Amino acid sequence: MGHTSYRGRGGKRAGPPRRPSDGGPLLPFPSAAPIPTDRCANLGLLFDRFIRWKPGWTLDGEDKKQAFKRVVEASGLWQTGPAQQLLSAVQERQNAILASFRAQGYAVWSETLAMDWRLAVGLGRESVLDTGFATHRVYGLPIVPGGALKGLAAAYAQLVQNTRPQDDLFCLVFGSQDSKNAAAGRMVFFDALPARPPRLKLDLMNPHYGDYYQKKTDKRGCPIPPADYLTPVPVYFLTVEQTPFLFTMAARDISANEHLETAVQWLKTALAEMGAGAKTTSGYGYFGG
Predict the structure, then answer these.
(1) Distance (Å, rounded) from C-alpha 16 to C-alpha 224?
(2) Residue 199 in contact with residue 243, Cβ under 8 Å?
(3) Contacts of 246 (CB under 8 A, 6+ apart)
(4) Which pLDDT tens digit goes with each residue over 155-192?
(5) Strands, E assignment, 49-161
């Protein structure tokens, strides 16, 4: 199939990619798309879609750092009235979902937990900026995905509480992947959302032995050792700092109501002692400690 060019209003062919209002680098949008990226508070769109490009753009230079800084600066828009109203609406919608669970007789839990320091979630996601960042698909808010929280609670149950995957309680909370008795868990782990406008910070990793970790070889074909003559390569990434998050969980079967408290305790203790997301050994991702 041939390539179909983008056509704007009236079927006319759109112009070339346009420059933002500040005259900066090109944006990957046709001139027919009136997208005010300079005032966009959706952090997910800025991070995944609105990356400014120019000839010579690289991941190793200042370009990548500036792209991250634009997202950090945009997070300040969540301190304004319209964005705060949106955050309140998101929280109200979450409360309405929990209310519907209660109305059907299901046990629910909702609690705001303070962040001990910083949070880094989604670093391993695919990203044009090399390091990822987890945001809500619609609102662009930083989140801790429910699947990540479920995995964290399951790890705590196994590693600390010595609960086995085949135990009845473990299967009831998390489900079973056994080929003969496969079943979904009876607890719903919701995405954790910021309880107040999020505060983003640009952070940095500085690996000294990149060539060694990437298993590169020298001219003779020998593996490069982790030596001090290797040049450090700064790796920038985004974090959320000192922002309380709202954690919610609900039973989706009345028979699981009595076990909600146990599942909640597993999750809360795991958040305080094991941490969520990446770089937990460096103090990231701890809540309520």
Answers:
(1) 45
(2) yes
(3) 91, 94, 110, 111, 112, 192, 193, 194, 195
(4) 999 999 999 999 999 999 999 988 788 999 999 999 99
(5) 108-113, 118-119
Q: Where are the domains of the chain?
A: 19-282
Average pLDDT estimate for 110-116: 98
How many whole angstroms separate alpha carbon 62 and alpha carbon 67?
Answer: 9
Local confidence band at 120 (pLDDT 50, 70, 90 cut-offs) = very high
What pLDDT was estimated at residue 21? 54
Q: What is the pLDDT of residue 8?
A: 42
Express each pLDDT in 33-43 by its tens digit: 666 667 889 99
Q: What is the DSSP string of 148-160?
A: HHHHHHHHHHHHT
Rounded Cα gap, residues 46 and 48, in angstroms: 6
Nearest Cα neighbor of 185 from 175, 193, 200 is 175
**Distance from C-alpha of 125 to C-alpha of 142, rounded to nearest angstrom:** 14
Tens-digit pLDDT profile for residues 261-275 = 999 999 999 999 999
71/124 Cα distance (integer angstroms): 18
Say if residue 248 is exposed, middle or buried (CB neighbours under 10 Å; 0-12, 13-18, 19+): buried
CA–CA separation, 221 and 136 (whole Å): 45
